[in-house]
Fold each of these.
Amino acid sequence: MYQRIFVPVGADESSACVVEEASRLAAALHARICLAQVVDTSQFADDPLELAHELRLSEAEREHDDRRAALHRSLEARAQPLQAAGIETDTRLVEKFGGKICDAIVKAAADWKADLIVMGTHGRGGIRHFLMGSVAEGVLHHTRIPILLVHDTSDDD
């Protein structure tokens, strides 16, 4: 059965129901979890041309390192309750520069040798889905790894 469960999470707490579902599954199966957060490093660059200047580059690198460290601390904090419950847990900050989030998730899950991806979906439809796209749908179409989708009810009206 599933022994390596890859769980992409967001920066906010909306992923709590996804982590909870993954932890129940991992506990039942004695599986390992990898909590992963994708961060687009291009967001750290205000203006790529401006970054070419040596001084500005070093400032941007320090700011990026500070943000990276904060994200690592956040992932580690999310992993602590899982580890306390006896679930082996890895954390991974997946950095990408441009491109699609779904592609970064698919690659990171494959690199970690996941045999299941557990991720959230907002269940948006219609124009909201068209405008915002669906990371879950992108992952579904680009991976051969089985996926368990957990409906995120945190922003339901």
Note: The CA atoms of residues 44 and 81 lie 30 Å apart.
Amino acid sequence: MAQIKQGLVFTTVVVTQNELALMFRDEQFEAVLAPGKHRFVNASKALTWQVFDTKGLYFTDANAQRLVRENAELQEHIQFWQLASNEAGLLYVDGQMRGIVAPGDKLFLWKAAGELRLERINLDEQLSVNTGVLTDIKNRGLNAATNLIASAAVVRRVPVLEARVMANHVGLLMVDGALQEVLQPGVYGFWQLSQHVEVKVFDLRKQTLEVAGQEILTKDRVSIRINLTATIKVEDAVLAAEQVDDINAFIYKSVQLALREAVGTKTLDDLLADKLYVNETVSALVSDELHQVGVRLCRVGVKDIILPGEIKTILNKVVEAQKSAEANVIKRREETAATRSLHNTAKMMEGNTTLLRLKELEALEKVSERVGSLNVYGGLEQLLTQTVKLS
């Protein structure tokens, strides 16, 4: 660390290795002091010194530009660069990237810090970042607003916009709101130092949209909650980006409003009677609207219709009464059929002794199944003629 010893007449300045001192007389630059011991007459105290660490890379002084421009001796120790308003810079020290320089900024660097190199990038001609440069920037942690080399007057922002487009996706490069390029799957980097850069990524696969928990009043003023599912597919990403700002929000609102229109124009009984009505109506209302923004509605369907508790109780009672009435009708129909069958059998047996005898034997068989033991008196003829006798 430099030492300055002030005497009555003489002042001794000791500049250590990797340091330089600037000497001023009456606040005007006079000389550069190299490492070593220096002695000056300073009885009037007109001399002052500023000591700098030359390994610190940057020469920071409020009057840096004037000092460097006006003093050739200082120019031997300081490297000065100024970028145009449409240029960014990559600063390399000893072959390694040390930082990204903002457009229009000025650099004052100590030449003793190492081998200095500034790679200029014309932002009007080169928007994309080379893959090798992008990797170097990420590996060195330089892609942050706090790491951007910029003066206080320059707005600091993340220098490079990194975008990743996955398989079955497409990316749209937007510069200041205008479409510049369609990006296929891959990893990209773009300079965003002098203009607003955005990459909108669209999934080209079929996607499921859930419109859940919609409280809707039917035509007969019954409040129901309905859940609907739609399957959509983005077919023209460019058209979607040009027509709407947020495609997902647009699709959701379109399907939601169509669902409310479909349900609100029908009574509860109509909705329950025709379960496909909502699906068909929503599809008819939304398909053309989505097609105009590059989206295809593949399928739409109602998952659930949830009724209020009291309405559900009433409907359960109605269904129970309907089913009970249907059961009574079926029971009466079967009883009538059985009576008609008995009547037909009786008419057939009338005057037909053989058929009558067969029915007697059938009855005897059924009686025998329920009897544990049977004592027969009078022989087999008595069993056949007297045990069961139909008349």
Note: The chain has ten helices and 20 strands.
Amino acid sequence: MDQRNKTRDGMTTRRNFLQVGYSGLLGMGLPGLLAGRSATAAATGAIPGRAKSVIVILLSGGLGQHDSFDMKPEAPDGIRGEFKPIDTAAPGLQMCEHLPGLAARAKRLAIVRSMSHPEGNHLCAVHRILTGHASTPRGASDLDRVASRDDFPCYAAVLDSLRRRSDGIPNGVALPTRLVEGPLTWPGQDAGFLGPRHDPWQLKLDPNQAESKDDSLALPDGLDPARLHRRRHLLGQTFVVPTTGDAFADQQDAALALLCNGQVGRALNVEHEDPRLVDRYGHHSFGKSLLLARRLVEAGVPIVQASMGIVQTWDTHTDNFPRLKNDLLPPLDRAVSALLDDLDVRGLLDETLVVMLGEFGRTPRIHPLKPGDVPGRDHWPAVFPAMFAGGGVVGGQVIGKSDRLGAYPISRSFSPPDLAATIYRALGVDTGTELRDRLGRPLTLCSGEPMTSLYSTAPV
């Protein structure tokens, strides 16, 4: 092939594709095309996915296992905590008294109690959860661990690199705000070494105002999507449009497609949503974020990351029990319960995998124990819980087990790479896919194994 018809990445240009590739597809015919896809899937070992979309609900800061889904009522003082367990709709499954909505929907949930990894630093742990990989060492301090273009890409970025689309629907949306604190930007939120063209779209909402909205898709008065599309078409006929491989051109194309399509813009406009449904989600940032997540999934976005709060919202080193009881667990319970019901009523739950977890758990021992001090729990990555629902997940079950103190797994543990493999498998992405970093070095997409126990009741 003439090298002038190739980009820097070795991909054929639009013109070359139109001249050669499209005619080749016409010559192949539909049966041949389908046969080719089947042969490719067989050769790569790709497993067809059950889910069309994945919603990752991130509890930034780390949810304590003892105070949510893995309570230890028989543990000694100083470990079991102040909350009481309650029975759920699933026989034998108990959870925190401040999660009554999820308890009532337990037959839809699979609770994993043996998630585990070795990283107790927020930034590195978030990177593990959102990519399935350890972060690249760059230094000893937190300032050296901020987001970098050497990071491994997040799930949405990988999907975008493998299934680039031009229909105006992004492959990934993150909301309500970027995980940033001062000069620190948490790694794992973008495309890393794949480059900015594959970054998920970051929705910008004020986490302190439940009714805030992102106006980035709002067109000026007098300019509608149809008119914008005509302008773009006229521009393409007047000037030479850069070929695929030009990062700016790719991002411009994606932005214009997003504006011209209008589906995502409509999904972000909740003004016409049934007020009773909005009430069920709750008039707070948790509820608004998950309502938007449902609307984005309904619009065709395959991966939505909804952070429940800003960085370290769930980092309860002090005032653990009042914060969970009054500020965190009730709105989370309400919003996630509404999300599950809403997806189910619309026929979307079976094709949407919902995953909820923090980047790690909290210490078994409560500190400090002196009278008058405010009790809290510290970082604990050795064992922590995760909740799964939808996308073919068999609900009403507990997977994995921690010891009597909730400190370490005593059954098979599951790692962030296993979480990544589960998400990729749900979307039909081959975990053995090879990516290349900025130096051209080959990297395997995922080293984990899909958590198949989520889809059956066989013992782990």
Note: Residues 14-44 form the longest helix (31 residues).
